[in-house]
Write a structure and sequence with these properties.
Radius of gyration of chain B: 16 Å
Structural class of chain B: mainly alpha
Strand content of chain A: under 5%
Shape of chain A: globular
Number of domains of chain B: 1
Number of helices of chain B: 3
Radius of gyration of chain A: 23 Å
Helix content of chain B: over 70%
Distance between the termini of chain B: 52 Å
Number of helices of chain A: 8
Oligomer: heterodimer
Number of strands of chain B: 0
Largest sheet of chain B: none
């Protein structure tokens, strides 16, 4: 009974908080000064056609570095916890997982290259079209998932995956540091020429940063998927 | 009532249904699928609200990878006291 009372009181408190929030809500009819600066000056200042990317990679680049770090830590944690478990299972050889049907295998043979290529397309064009490193990396990891669906016993080459991940993480921080010395600050993209607005090679270091983030996120999520799949 | 508003309301109803089903359903796998479904509706709603960047993340991670990782994780757990291999 006391438990139900507490649940009811908690719900009441949450409702009161949200009622206060909702009753004072006014739809914003103009941008805040900071957002207005981003919208008005962003394209000229940074040369990115996709303004979201300009904010995520440069204006709020430190937050993105934090997100990449969080993802790295969770991937490392998954690796640590699930790799220890596998060592114990090495004692008894496990039988192979059931192979999937021929229909799935054929479809994956057709779809896998397209999925991977689409992931690469998304992060290479991150400064021009919607999407970017995280989205492209997630699409690449979906491609890895397709691979695991078709061939449950498939293995990733851990040496290559690990080196690709460390290289891209190191490169990301290095590009950020280059921004301090050659341009205005950490993760400033303007140490490379801004180029023509809307071209593939434009917006300074932004495509470089998003390619590195895309590789990092793609390899990390793929390795996490493989760890969860088990042997 | 415009058609966009109608679609948005339908999507909101879908998100709420998916979320409630994820809490209420007893089967773990069904609950995971319901949560993924809520994510999928949210992704479509983001496209409607002109946020394609967020929609891509939500569709690929929220309804794709997270669902599969949950399924793999459920596959690797066992009910307490259950000694069978599946």
């Amino acid at each position: 009974m006391a438990k139900r009372l507490f649940i009811f009181l908690t719900l009441l408190a949450v409702a009161a908080m949200f009622f206060d929030f909702a009753s004072h809500f006014r739809p914003a009819d103009k941008l805040s000064p900071l957002a207005e600066h981003y919208v008005a000056e962003g394209p000229q200042e940074l040369g990115a056609a996709n303004l979201v990317t300009a904010v995520v990679v440069t204006y709020r680049g430190l937050d993105t570095l934090g997100e990449v770090t969080v993802l790295f830590l969770s991937a490392a944690g998954v690796g640590l916890l699930l790799a220890g478990r596998r060592k114990r299972e090495d004692a008894e050889p496990q039988e192979d997982l059931h192979p999937s049907s021929e229909l799935v295998q054929t479809a994956v043979q057709f779809l896998l290259p397209i999925a991977m290529l689409f992931g690469v397309y998304i992060f290479v064009n991150g400064h021009l079209t919607p999407g970017g490193g995280f989205q492209g990396g997630a699409v690449i990891a979906s491609g890895t998932l397709l691979l695991f669906l078709a061939l449950p016993n498939a293995k990733l080459h851990h040496g290559i995956m690990g080196e690709l991940e460390s290289f891209s993480g190191f490169g990301y921080v290095l590009v950020g540091l280059l921004g301090i010395f050659l341009a205005g600050g950490f993760l400033d993209n303007r140490f490379l020429p801004l180029g023509d607005f809307g071209r593939l090679l434009s917006a300074g270091a932004m495509p470089l940063i998003y390619v590195l983030i895309g590789l990092k996120v793609g390899t990390e999520l793929s390795v996490v998927l493989e760890r969860f799949k088990g042997e | 009532m415009t058609i966009e508003l109608l679609i948005a309301l339908l999507l909101c109803a879908g998100i709420l249904t998916g979320g409630v089903l994820a809490v209420v359903l007893h089967g773990t796998v069904s609950a995971i699928i319901a949560a993924g479904l809520a994510s999928l509706f949210a992704a479509v709603l983001y496209v409607l609200l002109a946020a394609p960047d967020v929609a891509m993340t939500e569709a690929s991670i929220g309804s794709g990878l997270a669902t599969v990782i949950f399924l793999y994780a459920v596959n690797r757990t066992r009910r307490y006291g259950d000694d069978s291999d599946d």
